[in-house]
Amino acid sequence: MSITVTRQERIALITVDRPERLNALDTPTLRALLETLRELAADESTCVMLLTGAGERAFIAGADISEMAEKSPAEALAFAELGHAVCRAIEEAPQPVIAVVNGYALGGGCEIALACDIRLASDRAVFGQPEVKLGIPPGWGGSQRLPRLVPPGIARELLYTGRRITADEALRIGLVNAVYPAAELLDRAWQLAQQIAANGPVAVRLTKAATRFGDEHGLAAGLAYERQCFAYAFTTEDQREGMRAFLEKRQPQFRGR
Ligand code: DAK
Q1: What is the Cα–Cα distance from 247 to 245, expressed in whole angstroms?
Q2: What is the pLDDT of residues 207-250, one digit of tens each?
Q3: Do residues 109 and 54 make contact, with C-beta atoms less than 8 angstroms apart?
Q4: Is any atom of ligand 1 closer than 6 Å to the C-beta of 64?
Q5: Among residues of the chain, what percentage have pLDDT more than 90?
Q6: DSSP readout, 147-159?
Q7: Residue 204 has what DSSP assignment?
């Protein structure tokens, strides 16, 4: 299996498991990843997803170059669409998705990390959009998401040069939330996921939906959407439980409804 899923209560860890190719994504692996993301997105018992790569060297070293090399323009378009569908599945999943970047995140690998809500990196992680070195532009959203995440001039420099950056530089430019020693990364990622999963599941989903809505439709529409989300929360048991627990000075028992 090129994609595996490990669960701890309400958290699912998705691993791209193709270490002999540094977890590069070919069509079967992309399809399996897309199917897994869609299944988990539809699963109400999953509150947070983690996404990582197998082995110690790579998160995802990009699209599989050996598959891409001989593609016709029509096949290249289909391949780009499949990669875009994976990135959209991450963004459109109701649950937060955390990229756990344990090594190379290059090209399509960096683009998949960009589509995640949060990025944690090991001190060995390496990021880059080296597509221009292969004679192609980014194909899975890097030209759009990178300039929206880091300062646009820095994004353009990285996109035009294809140069790789270390985890420390990624932290400095805001590409990752935190950098940890490689041996600690996964534990830290589970801890962050647990912190999120301890909150009201509906509230976390509404919060992701509102941030995404604003990203896609602009501030005014995002603010209007946020008001609707806020009002909707008052139809839920979790809202009553969360506030009652505060007033009664106890931990809330959220039920996700
Ligand atoms: N594809 C296929 N195989 C890969 C790979 C990749 N992206 N990355 C690594 N591998 C394979 C290597 O070929 C090698 O296989 P064997 O020789 O052992 O059979 C094995 O993984 C181990 O890699 P290395 O021997 O090269 O290991 P090193 O430590 O020497 O180097 C490296 C590690 C990550 C620096 C190096 O492997 C490397 O530069 N890899 C390529 C990274 C890269 O350029 N990634 C971006 C790929 S382009 C589009 C659609 C999609 C995209 C763009 C446009 N449209 C339709 C428009 C997406 C593009 C990309 O992602």
Answers
A1: 5
A2: 999 999 999 999 999 999 999 999 999 999 999 999 999 999 99
A3: no
A4: yes
A5: 100
A6: HHHS-HHHHHHHH
A7: H
Which residue's C-alpha comes closest to atom 52 of ligand 1?
Answer: 139
Helix, strand counts (H, E) of the chain: 11, 10
Phi, psi angles (nearest 5°) of residue 92: -90, -10
User: What's the rounded mean pLDDT across residues 163-184?
Assistant: 98
pLDDT attached to residue 5: 98
* Strand ranges for the chain from DSSP E: 3-8, 11-16, 48-53, 58-60, 97-101, 104-106, 118-122, 126-128, 165-166, 178-180
Q: How far is the CA of 108 from the centre of ligand 1 (A)?
A: 10
Structure token digits, residue 198:
């301890």
178 Cα–ligand 1 center, Å? 25
Asked if 163 and 128 touch (Cβ cutoff 8 Å), the reply is: yes
User: How much distance in Å is there from the Cα of 22 to the middle of ligand 1?
Assistant: 7
Can 248 be counted among the known catalytic residues?
no
CA 90, 92, 96 angle in degrees (round to 5)? 60
Residue nearest to atom 11 of ligand 1 (CA): 21
Catalytic, 39? Answer: no
Residue 175 sits at φ, ψ, to 5 deg, of -75, -30
Where are the extended beta strands (E) located within 21-94?
Answer: 48-53, 58-60
In the predicted model, is pLDDT for residue 141 greater than 80?
Answer: yes
Taken in order of first residue, the domains within the chain and their CATH numbers are: 3-197 (3.90.226.10), 201-247 (1.10.12)
